[in-house]
Amino acid sequence: MDDDGNKRLSMAEFRKGVADFGLDLTDEEVKAAFNQVDTDHFSPCCARALNESRLKLIKAAFQKMDKTGDGQITVKDLKGIYNARQHPKYQNGEWSEDQVFTEFLKTFEAPNTTDGVEFLNYYSGISNSIDHDSYFDLMMRNSWKL
């Protein structure tokens, strides 16, 4: 739904997204739903259920990241998967590799969590914007080299 890519959801973007999902809501209902949107992921009221094939891909991506197999994604897990040295703030000396990894983790997780729940919610939100299973499959396989 974030059409302008600023990582914030405006009311106009949300209204358009609601229409794109085929929901026929009044302005008041759209506003009420918008107020339920969390800063990290959509409220379950707006999400379609993941089918088994999409859930399996999301779990596979998480497992690929979870090198230690402890059910959590940590900086240690990311070493060798995510190349922090390509990040502009690492290249200009502003951040260390660990700082880049920590910021990368924040892309998927709520503050102080790394258990994969937010990772699942993040990709559930993305899944809602992709109509065809084949495209979601392609996107996940290309993104995570599954």
Automatic annotation (TrEMBL):
One of its GO terms (molecular function) is calcium ion binding. Residues 1-24, 53-88 form the EF-hand domain. PROSITE patterns: EF_HAND_1 (PS00018), EF_HAND_2 (PS50222). The keyword Cytoplasm does not apply. Keywords: Calcium, Metal-binding, Repeat. It holds the Pfam family EF-hand_5. InterPro entries: Ca-bind, EF-hand-dom_pair, EF_Hand_1_Ca_BS, EF_hand_dom. This is Calcyphosin-like protein. It comes from Macrostomum lignano. The lineage of its organism: Eukaryota, Metazoa, Spiralia, Lophotrochozoa, Platyhelminthes.
